[in-house]
Design a protein that fits this description.
The chain has 11 helices and 11 strands. It is α/β, with parallel strands linked by helices. Helix 3 crosses helix 8.
Length: 316
């Protein structure tokens, strides 16, 4: 930053503004804008089981939910937003996923929905609790114990599973609290954008805290049926996309196995793995958010009142 900009930045700070480097992150003119402004009628008249002009099927949706709950973790001081033990946190978040799946089934969005729980060797009593929660699901479900221990291994295993399939995939974690319409809205928006722009995409169910703290860049805002959607270039490994993206860009997924590895964890970070997808395909996050990462206050999406949603997903 040159001296003139430094002086200008100093003056602007008095009024609550700041100057940041843009790192040559610029927006290109958006294509097919007139069609995007008519997404709802386009979706109503253009639903198909196969994405037009591709070999990408939209008639199946897989929800890959990663869980891990062990007794020794329960003894730690709760670090989550609600200040409860991890068992209660995971239980409520898992119920929210099931209710969102059921809503999508009722609204007949997402084609055939399958829930696959990739469990990282949770204790038996927790597995039984997960089974009880999953029994309330209106879709086919299963709980798989991952081949190896560790967060990175469960990440890799779910992506490998998707790589060999053909359908939409939502990869989520056990500490995300979901709105009831989350799954259905992500399906509808994904299909609308694909059929309008003929491109696959990535959806993250909430805005990343980077967008408000450390990384500032311009975004497009699109108006969907129930909320706005913002273009993004940062997300966690919680993603909604198509299996074709995993197979075509496998090099951005295979190093997720290093997540949790003390020596190589930087290689598995989002910046070194799945965030690189945004160099090739568009990414979107909903405003208001469709889910909230309940790990810490800093992980929450801005202006998100999570308490009513938390209360609605208590024990039946």
């Amino acid at each position: 930053m040159n001296d003139v900009l430094r002086l200008l930045a100093k003056l602007l700070k008095r009024y609550g503004y700041d100057i940041k480097r843009h790192y040559e992150y610029n927006l290109l003119p958006i294509a097919n804008l007139s069609k995007i402004n008519q997404l709802s009628p386009l979706y109503a008249t253009g639903q198909q089981n196969t994405a037009p002009g591709t070999d990408s099927s939209f008639d199946k949706l897989f929800i890959c939910l990663r869980t891990c709950l062990r007794n020794h973790n329960e003894k730690r001081k709760p670090p989550n937003v609600a200040g409860v033990d991890r068992y209660e946190l995971v239980s409520r978040c898992m119920r929210s996923v099931i209710r969102s799946i059921n809503y999508a089934v009722e609204k007949k969005t997402g084609g055939t929905i399958n829930l696959v729980v990739f469990d990282d060797h949770s204790d038996e009593r927790f597995i039984k609790s997960f089974e009880d929660i999953c029994r309330n699901s209106k879709c086919r479900w299963e709980i798989r114990t991952t081949h190896e221990y560790g967060q990175g291994q469960s990440l890799l295993e779910q992506f490998e599973f998707a790589r060999g399939s053909n359908g939409l995939f939502y990869f989520c974690e056990d500490d995300y609290l979901h709105e009831v319409s989350a799954v259905a809205e992500m399906v509808i928006f994904y299909e609308q954008i694909f059929r309008t722009c003929r491109t696959h995409l990535v959806i993250h169910p909430q805005e990343h805290e980077f967008l408000y703290s450390r990384t500032i860049y311009p975004s497009y805002l699109l108006l969907g049926e129930n909320r706005h959607w913002r273009t993004i270039s940062h997300a966690t490994h919680v993603l909604f996309t198509h299996s074709k993206i995993i197979s075509d860009h496998w090099q951005y997924f295979e190093n997720t196995r290093f997540v949790g590895d003390k020596k190589k964890r930087r290689l598995g970070s989002e910046a070194k793995t799945t965030d690189l997808l945004f160099n090739h395909i568009p990414g979107f996050a909903p405003i208001p958010s469709l889910a909230a990462h309940m790990q810490t206050e800093s992980c929450l999406p801005p202006f998100f009142n999570w308490r009513p949603l938390w209360d609605r997903n208590g024990p039946d």
